[in-house]
């Protein structure tokens, strides 16, 4: 049964990752062929970085992802602290509400935000563009930050905050010197996850973007509707590598924290 399970797992991984590796290989193909590898070249990467539309969308995506991740990390951390201080029943209710945007289909969130922005656009002269995109990204990033921070509160001694105050710390000092270092791995993980989701979000961005401000996934979608260029293969390869690096960093942080916690408990 163990061998069967390993074979089954290998087939699943093969099914998931072989298309990505094929895409990476053909991003270095000399010709536009998607079935025959003619020879190695970096021309598509050079053309990619000379494509003004893609570069503009890439810069816009990175700016939105960074700002949205920072703001959502701050809001998510404060929200997690507030949720953690609640009693059991209200805490469970708030967590269920917080998890709804994660469980909810993205198209529902995207359409809902679009209708909300249309409502405000008619009354406050709000135009679809950078601002609406940023608000939308912050909206779906915050629950992921909370989801990453809350387990850190469960791992932490609940009396640490009071103990710090008993030893002379003010509430702010107790938070800064005791609570924040304990939950910091969750904060960093939440930031990285928020950044990753903002970087590759398409559905919500599609409904909340305007003609003046578009993200990279939307630009790629508009390009694929006409003709698939090997430049897209090169771009997809770069995005894949960046996301893998972020996930590796996230796992390293979590592993170090788990090791630290096990050493702390052993002592």
Provide an overview of this structure.
The model has no long low-confidence stretch (mean pLDDT 84). The longest helix has 37 residues, at 230-266. 82% of the residues lie in helices and 0% in strands. The protein is globular, with a radius of gyration of 22 Å. With 267 residues, it is an all-alpha fold. Helix 2 (43-50) packs across helix 11 (230-266) and helix 3 runs antiparallel to helix 8. The chain is built from 11 helices and no strands.
**Gyration radius, in Å:** 22 Å
Structural class: mainly alpha
Q: What is the tally of helical segments?
A: 11
What fraction of residues sit in β-strands? under 5%
What kind of sheet is the major sheet? none
What percentage of residues falls in helices of 4 or more residues?
over 70%
Overall average residue pLDDT: 84
Distance N to C terminus: 40 Å
Stretches with pLDDT under 50, minimum 5 residues = none
SSE sequence, one letter per element: HHHHHHHHHHH
Shape: globular
Oligomer: single chain
Question: What topology does this entry show?
Answer:
Elements (H helix, E strand, L loop, with lengths): L1 H25 L16 H8 L1 H33 L3 H16 L2 H19 L5 H26 L4 H7 L4 H30 L2 H6 L7 H11 L3 H37 L1
What characteristics describe this protein?
single chain, 267 residues, 82% helix
């Amino acid at each position: 049964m163990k061998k069967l399970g390993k074979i089954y797992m290998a087939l699943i991984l093969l099914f998931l990752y072989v298309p990505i590796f094929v895409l990476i290989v053909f991003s270095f193909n000399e010709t536009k062929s998607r079935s025959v590898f003619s020879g190695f070249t970096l021309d598509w990467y050079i053309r990619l970085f000379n494509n003004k539309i893609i570069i503009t969308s890439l810069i816009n995506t990175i700016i939105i992802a960074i700002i949205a991740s920072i703001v959502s990390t701050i809001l998510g951390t404060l929200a997690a602290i507030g949720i953690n201080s609640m009693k059991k029943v209200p805490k469970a209710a708030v967590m269920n509400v917080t998890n709804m945007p994660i469980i909810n289909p993205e198209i529902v969130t995207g359409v809902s935000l679009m209708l909300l922005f249309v409502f405000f656009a008619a009354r406050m002269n709000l135009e679809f563009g950078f601002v609406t995109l940023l608000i939308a990204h912050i909206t779906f990033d915050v629950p992921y930050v909370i989801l990453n921070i809350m387990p850190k509160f469960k791992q932490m001694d609940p009396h640490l905050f009071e103990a710090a105050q008993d030893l002379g710390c003010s509430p702010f000092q107790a938070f800064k010197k005791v609570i924040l270092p304990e939950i910091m791995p969750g904060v960093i993980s939440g930031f990285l996850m928020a950044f990753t989701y903002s970087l590759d979000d398409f559905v919500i961005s599609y409904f909340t973007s305007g003609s003046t401000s578009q993200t990279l996934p939307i630009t790629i979608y508009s390009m694929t509707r006409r003709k698939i260029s090997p430049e897209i293969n090169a771009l997809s390869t770069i995005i894949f590598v960046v996301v893998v690096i972020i996930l590796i960093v996230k796992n390293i942080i979590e592993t170090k924290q788990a090791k630290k916690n096990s050493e702390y408990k052993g002592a």
